[in-house]
Amino acid sequence: MSSVRRCVLRLHLLALAFAPALLPACGPAILAPADATITLSASASTISLSGSSTLTATVLTSTGENVQDGTMVFFQTTLGSLSSPQSRTRSGKAVTNLLSGSTEGTATVAAGSGSAVSNTVDVVIVSGRISVQVAADSTSPAVNTLVTFTATASASGLSITQYEWDFGEPAAGAANTRTTQTGSATYTYTTVGSKTVTVKAVASDGSSATARVTLTVR
Question: What is the pTM for the complete model shown?
Answer without folding.
Answer: 0.59
